[in-house]
């Protein structure tokens, strides 16, 4: 039987692949045979992820880029092109958060979060999807959204707005890129404690999250691998585009 999830011969570009969730997904791609370009602003962290992938028998390389800089992303794209000859999968996993109350929010902070979480994704899709189209490579773009994108969470106003925008970008580009054979989907993770949200996880907030999560626990980063590999695989998800896939322990189905 054909392995529906085999990514052998594919190259994945993981923007934010040095983050907690991005690195876990990148390792999932590598475990299924993909070469993975780990792209991050912190090159040392990216190299650490590469080493973990290589130690597991996979193939990866680290590249430095800032998602807020078109020139930086273009340079990384050229370097990845030289390394792999192109790519078939684009993972967009950068993220920035803040718990600043609405009336205390300064526009510099708003711009900073929106630049990383939304503008940066638009830039990466312009650059990396264009090259996929130019090379006539069918492929998959996977954006990492959030449960706050559909029903805004308290204390994370700007983050919630940016992720809601990301959902719209995902569905627009799914329609835009479908004629070129590129699928665009988003994963909506539930609560996976990572660097950008640990600082707002007080005891009371954790209790509230657990009461609203039927599975009554946080997710672990490797639990995102299945959904990501499925969306990356042309064999497994060839007719899937424009979708928002929840991996949230039931959070999105919970009410009173």
UniProtKB/TrEMBL annotation:
Similarity remark: Belongs to the short-chain dehydrogenases/reductases (SDR) family.
Domain of life: Bacteria
Record bears the keyword RNA-binding: no
Pfam families in UniProt: adh_short_C2
Stored PANTHER family: 3-OXOACYL-[ACYL-CARRIER-PROTEIN] REDUCTASE FABG, SHORT-CHAIN DEHYDROGENASES/REDUCTASES FAMILY MEMBER
Protein name: Gluconate 5-dehydrogenase
Gene Ontology biological-process annotations: bile acid metabolic process
Keywords associated with the record: Oxidoreductase
Lineage, uppermost ranks: Bacteria, Bacillati, Bacillota, Bacilli, Bacillales
Keyword Oxidoreductase: yes
GO molecular function terms attached to this record: oxidoreductase activity, acting on the CH-OH group of donors, NAD or NADP as acceptor
